[in-house]
Amino acid sequence: MDSMLGQIQGIPLNHYLIFCAIIFSIGVVGVLVRRNVIVLMMSVELMLNSVNLLLVAFSAHHGDPSGQVFVFFIMALAAAEVAVGLAIIVMVYRNTKSIDIDALSKLRW
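and the corresponding structure tokens:
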């Protein structure tokens, strides 16, 4: 049992840390670089999912299910964000005929 303390189902915890850091970094680059609203929302979802995976990994590592409970709350928040975000994208597209973020400056009066 002690040999499995640093591993979750045979995968060391530091592999989870590195993987989640890479996925989160890809999401941050997507938010900062891309100007498309849909890609921007996908990048935010990617960052949320990397945090979810890390919470589950730490929860399994410590044997405490509270991290997995937080994951359900984050998933509910992400679902609400997608619903509101898609409604905003539809309204922006109706007004500007584009989903580019730069087109949002046309909505000012």
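(Above: one complete record from the training split.) The domain at 2-107 is CATH 1.10.287.3510 (Helix Hairpins).
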